[in-house]
Write a structure and sequence with these properties.
This protein is of the alpha+beta class and 98 residues long. It is 12% helix and 30% strand. The protein is built from two helices and seven strands, in the order E-H-E-H-E-E-E-E-E. The strands form three sheets. A three-stranded antiparallel β-sheet has the order 2-5-4, with no helix packed on it. A two-stranded antiparallel ribbon has the order 1-6. Strands 3-7 form a two-stranded antiparallel ribbon. The longest helix is centred in the N-terminal third of the chain and has 8 residues. The radius of gyration is 14 Å and the shape is globular.
């Protein structure tokens, strides 16, 4: 992730899914520990949703009650207000950063 080099962000999975997976603050820990346990080079993007240009849709595509934000287009980097390293603890699990 390098905000200064790019005006838009599109993850590798975008070509397959046509959207960017996101999480609310309350969803981050469960998602990180379920899907990314032991990953050492993650970052958290703090996104101001009022600045996001593409449509944001809250949905659950696998059939559940928890709705996740999906960005249907490339994320304009001026909507990203903060980026922090997100490292697991010694047990490989994530804890919410200070």
């Amino acid at each position: 992730w390098n905000k200064s080099k790019n005006k838009a962000y599109k993850p590798k999975t975008f070509e397959l899914e046509d959207f960017i997976h996101c999480s609310t603050r309350e969803q981050i820990m469960n998602v990180a520990n379920t899907f990314y346990s032991n990953e050492k080079d993650l970052v958290l993007l703090f996104i101001n949703k009022s600045k996001v240009k593409p449509e944001i849709v809250f949905e659950n595509l696998i059939g559940g009650d928890i709705m996740f934000p999906h960005i249907y287009g490339e994320l304009n980097t001026d909507a990203v207000e903060k980026v922090i390293d997100f490292k697991p603890n010694d047990a490989g699990k994530f804890e919410f950063p200070d």
